[in-house]
Amino acid sequence: MLVHSKPARRAVHILFLALFLPVFALPLLVIVAASFASSWSGTLPTGATLTHYQDISSGEALNALLTSILTALAASVAALAAGTWAALAAEKLGRRTRRIVDGLFLLPVAVPSVVVGLSLLVAFSRPPFLLNGTPQIVILAHTVLVTAFAHQSVTAALARLDPAYEQSAAGLGARPAYVLWRVKLPLLLPSLTAAAGLCFALSMGELSATMMVYPPDWLPLPVQIFAATDRGALFAGAALAVALMVATLIGLLGLSRIRTKASYR
User: Fold this and answer.
1) Which of 56, 87, 143, 209 has its CA 20 to 30 A from that of 154?
2) Percent of the chain whose predicted confidence (pLDDT) is above 90
3) How far apart are CA 150 and CA 87, in angstroms?
4) For domain 52-264, which CATH number applies: 1.20.1300.10, 3.90.25.10, 1.10.3720.10, 3.30.1330.10?
5) Residue 159 to residue 145: CA distance in whole angstroms
């Protein structure tokens, strides 16, 4: 640490806990407590129950969770492929052209996500690209929103990559495709897995654009959480939110194991 004095380190730790607990940890603990409550009239919840979790263990809630996971996985893979391809292609371009490409990928992040959803709804509501009312438009909306993060992560990793590895492989007679698949991409694998985790987490929690485009037979869990809290079922919505957090954390833990192995390699 930058602070070498023991009393100063203790003060920094206390300050961190004082800021972390009420701002980050306490709201999550409140959601977890509310998911087990049947009523909440005082400081603490009363009437502990598992009814809310029993209700979401089957039926629409379970289908919504599966829909969110499938959507996040598909959007993450598509965003990672598109962002990586664009970052590799832009690496050979001039500085001004690279800035234009970066700006295009950051444009969906610079505008409200509800605008992205509306633009996709209008753009794909007529043949020959009729996606309105299909699961594909939800996946496309999530892909558009998270591709910028994948592109920026891979671009930053490429800037830190030592060109000596690529030059050595090319000097030994390796073809460009071989250098890409056997040298460059393995070196980028830790950054690729980190980008995939970020895209997965953002897609799992996406609501605004999803509300604009989702069909009735493809209902992600954030939409169901919003619907539950909108009709006053706050405790049921809290249980759904906890299920969403747990599923997201499990996915991120799985990706972190891949990233650890890639970094070790």
Assistant:
1) 209
2) 37
3) 9
4) 1.10.3720.10
5) 23
